[in-house]
Amino acid sequence: MKSELEGIIKRLIAMQDGSGDIKSRHFEKDGKDLAKVTYDEDNKIFQVDEIVSGESYKFDNIDLVAIEIYDILGA
To answer: What domain of life is recorded for the organism (predicted)?
Structure first.
């Protein structure tokens, strides 16, 4: 059984390891865009924008970002 959190964390780590100051990725479920995550390299901050509700959250901890994305995708 593969962990869904593991896949999310791998994508977030790739954002941290990539080049450029600000990077973003979209997270989808069943072809529907549910979240946009932006990583600010200078400040080491992830911002999660929940597409459906319009809510926005900032995290400096990759585990908390992964949990938030997991919750959004599972809703």
So the answer is: Bacteria
